[in-house]
Amino acid sequence: MAVKVASMGAAAHAALKAQVARINALNVYPVPDGDTGTNMLLTLESTLKDAADADYSSPEEASRAVARAALMGARGNSGVILSQMIRGACDVLAEHGALDAATFAAAMDGARERAYASVREPVEGTMLTVIKDAARAAVGAVEGGEDDLPAVIRASAVEAHESVRRTPELLDVLRDAGVVDAGGLAVAVILDGLYACVTGEEIESTFEADDDAPDLTAIHAEEEGWGYCTQFVVSGFSGEAEEFEEHVYGNGKSVLVIADEDTVNVHVHTQDPGAMLSYAGGFGRLARVK
């Protein structure tokens, strides 16, 4: 399993890297800062590198190493959510000795569950919707009797692209700008990479190049007030986790707080990054401040 999963991770990275500029150009939600593709790519790069440097002797240890690497390497709103998708998939992979169709479907569902759990107020029409629909397609294929891994991955990827197409119907800011969701497209592209890895074939894109030019006039008026994008890790976290989380949410926007046993990764847009970092420093050691 380890070799195949590692190869699939590399293929997902290659697919995302090839489309990163296009994905960035679509980025209008939640903050129109044009870095969704870059943040997801950097998250995946960091995860793959740190996991490769870790020592492990079993699928369980490998999965834990990847999940930990994703937590530490998450960048930006989209990267944080991607890290939790990776963690959810790893939770499932740790319990299985082989990556087959059923395991892939279960891993996709684990990714969906973790992704939604990472967001306090999930918004549909985003990458959350796309991973949900892609997971349902994978699970549905297996429940329908499909036991071929490439076929299940293809079903998931095809539905992901269809879900991306539907995102403007669910989120007004996308419809007004004339684009699909950037993070959602990145999820679909990652699945394309997984399919290419196991088959050597590509899934034909469902989008035309001239669909990728957003009308930013509809959202520029809302840009002000977001504050500064601030991200940091608190290692050796000690204190009241609920109090910490409430403070971050109460003093910022576009907030995501994810954690494992003793480490917390925070992404927040705040008017006073210094005050936020000073507060967080009271709970442990600050690292990876951006």
Description of the molecule:
The protein has helices spanning 2-25, 36-53, 59-73, 76-93, 101-117, 127-143, 149-170, 172-177, 182-199, 241-250, 273-280, and strands at residues 228-235, 253-259, 263-270, 285-287. The chain has 290 residues and is of the alpha+beta class. A 4-stranded antiparallel sheet has the order 2-3-1-4, sandwiched between helices. A hairpin with a 3-residue loop joins strand 2 and strand 3 (263-270). Helix 5 (101-117) runs antiparallel to helix 6 (127-143), helix 6 (127-143) packs parallel to helix 9 and helix 7 (149-170) packs antiparallel against helix 9. Mean pLDDT is 89; it is low at 207-211 and 216-223. Residues 3-196 form the DhaL domain.
Oligomer: single chain
Order of strands in the sheet with most strands:
2-3-1-4
Main beta-sheet annotation: 4 strands, antiparallel
pLDDT average, as an integer? 89
Q: Name the CATH architecture of the largest domain.
A: Alpha Horseshoe
What structural class is derived from the secondary structure elements? alpha+beta
CATH superfamily of the largest domain: DhaL domain
Proportion of strand residues: 5-15%
Helix content: 55-70%
Low-pLDDT parts are: 207-211, 216-223
- Global morphology: globular
* Rg (CA only): 18 Å
Protein name: Dihydroxyacetone kinase-like protein, phosphatase domain / Dihydroxyacetone kinase-like protein, kinase domain
InterPro entries: DegV_domain_contain, DhaL_dom, DhaL_dom_sf, FakA-like_M
Keywords: Kinase, Transferase
GO molecular function: glycerone kinase activity
